[in-house]
Design goal:
This protein has 514 residues and is an alpha/beta fold. The protein has a domain of 173 residues: Spore Coat Polysaccharide Biosynthesis Protein SpsA, Chain A, CATH 3.90.550.10. The protein is built from 24 helices and eight strands. The radius of gyration is 26 Å and the shape is elongated.
Length: 514
């Protein structure tokens, strides 16, 4: 292959063990390889020069962007491919890379970073995750990295008016997380830098998002504190700045989910409504789901319908994945089938059964050959509630047979599958099986399973003891206005005071149940 008009830029520190692999993957395709070393003691600069790279030195300042920007400033080719020392260019990407560099109508392009974990028992590659990243862009003094860690160039591109970032088809394989010790060390280093960055810039929402995404699962208190501050800051941020914040849907989704776990549905819905009205379509799904959970039917339907009907969302689309800015401005849970599920649920709650069925069918079309467990579970629940137990059983059998051919899908669908099994058992009068299946679903943190468990217990003995009622109330997450009502009904009987605002829809439901 001919030499391409490309500068490969990377930063290093004690990467002598990785450099030969990276350079071998590049071969001689690049016009130059620019290495900025930040203080190696293992001979990395000397090795890089021996392998043909141009090497500069820059003292480490606890800032990845600063070091990367030194490399960008030194590059001379028309295009730049920004890599890490522990990455390799996938050999199959070479034709795509050559074609990508011929594009004239874009400043930047996405590449896929394939993260490898520890090897599988059979010795094969274990791909942990594939991430889109802006690593290929034209050399321009205005394109610069931002952020101490998890740095990227998206903000500078947006400031230039560039939001069209097509997928280049190029793949970089990342080997840096294959060893457990190295993975822990990198995660700890990145987390420390993020905490420092957030402390320095407490109003920077993109940093708050990166910190939330990097915190370990058990850091519940810190995550909640960061998200609370971020949502408060978002409400005080100008509309223009919010529209340019690529991470806003994901940051909002994370913050709302933290509130949903606490049962703060009213607060989540009102915050989502305010930001949606200010920002627009980027928040259609995230806001629509929050509004649906709180029983704000009209606004929820408007937002979710707008999401489903947005141009480019084809009927057989499994998940929306537009190029450019919108790829980053996606709630990770957003999909046509998930939006259709919420629309079907809303319609069913309002007694519009035919509309609910239409949304179920629309969601199935969007899912195509892929099973969508929550959608199937909702269909079964609706059929049972309307007395169509035989039809519900057929849907369940078809779903189960499809999952038997998909072990990974079966594992992910187990909570919904068990909750649906419990519903069918309950509909057939088998309380023993229904209780056990609901218990298993609840143990998997499925709100439907926990709700069923409470309903079965109350059906068997309306005068449950205080301890049992309290345990049942706490088992329900209350992630929708109706399940929150059941939680509050149990809690009221044990004298537990609810500390948050109660959605109007939940209050109405409680008044009907008295």
């Amino acid at each position: 292959m001919r030499r391409l008009p490309l500068s490969v830029c990377l930063i290093t520190r004690d990467e002598a063990h990785n450099l030969p692999g990276l350079m071998a993957s590049l071969g001689s395709i690049a016009q130059e390889v620019v290495v900025v070393d930040t203080g190696s003691v293992d001979g990395t600069p000397e090795l890089a020069r021996a392998l043909g790279a141009r090497v500069l030195s820059s003292p480490w300042q606890n800032d990845f962007s600063q070091a990367r920007n030194v490399a960008l400033a030194a590059a001379t080719a028309p295009w730049i491919l920004s890599m890490d020392a522990d990455q390799k260019l996938d050999a199959a990407s070479l034709p795509m890379l050559e074609a990508a560099l011929q594009l004239q109508d874009c400043v930047a392009q996405l590449v896929t970073i394939k993260l490898l974990g520890p090897a599988n028992p059979d010795g094969g590659q274990n791909v942990v995750r594939c991430l889109p990243s802006i690593r290929l862009f034209k050399r321009d003094d205005r394109v610069r990295y931002r952020g101490r860690v998890h740095e990227d160039v998206s903000d500078s591109l947006i400031n230039m008016g560039s939001t069209h970032w097509p997928d280049s088809g190029v793949t970089l394989t990342d080997h840096g997380y294959m060893e457990e010790s190295a993975r822990r060390q990198k995660l700890a280093r990145n987390l420390a830098l993020l905490r420092q960055a957030v402390q320095e810039q407490p109003t920077a929402l993109h940093l708050a998002h990166k910190l939330v995404m990097s915190l370990p699962q058990d850091a519940v208190v810190e995550r909640g504190r960061v998200l609370q501050a971020a949502l408060s800051q978002a409400l005080c941020t100008s509309d223009a700045a919010l529209r340019e914040l690529a991470c806003l849907p994901r940051l909002l989704a994370a913050g709302l989910q933290a509130w949903v776990v606490q049962g703060r549905l009213e607060e989540a819905a009102l915050t989502a409504l305010t930001l949606w009205q200010r920002v627009g379509t980027h928040l259609d799904f995230t806001a629509g789901r929050a509004l649906a959970r709180a029983g704000m039917f009209s606004a929820a339907r408007q937002a979710l319908t707008s999401f489903v009907r947005e141009p480019g969302r084809e009927s057989n689309e499994v998940q929306t994945s537009h190029s450019g800015l919108s790829l980053f401005q996606q709630d990770e849970d957003s999909s046509v089938q998930e939006a259709c599920r919420w629309l079907a649920w809303l319609s069913d709650q309002e007694g519009k059964h035919s509309d609910a069925i239409r949304w179920i069918e629309r969601g199935k079309q969007a899912a195509g050959p892929y099973a969508h467990p929550p959608l199937n579970a909702l269909e079964i629940e609706m059929l049972i509630r309307h007395g169509n137990v035989d039809d519900a059983m057929r849907v369940f059998e078809d779903w189960s047979q499809a999952l038997n051919l998909d072990p990974d899908g079966l594992r992910l669908a187990l909570p919904e599958l068990m909750a649906s099994s419990a519903r069918l058992a309950l509909a057939c009068g088998d309380l023993i099986s229904a209780r056990e299946l609901a218990r298993q679903a609840a143990a998997a943190e499925d709100d439907a399973g926990a709700t069923l468990l409470v309903q079965i217990a109350l059906a068997e003995d309306p005068q449950l003891d205080v301890l049992t009622l309290d345990e049942l109330a706490q088992s329900i997450q209350g992630s929708r206005f109706d399940t929150l009502a059941l939680n509050l009904k149990c809690a009221a009987q044990v004298g537990r005071v609810w500390p948050y605002r109660i959605p109007a829809a939940t209050s109405r439901l409680l008044s009907y149940q008295r």
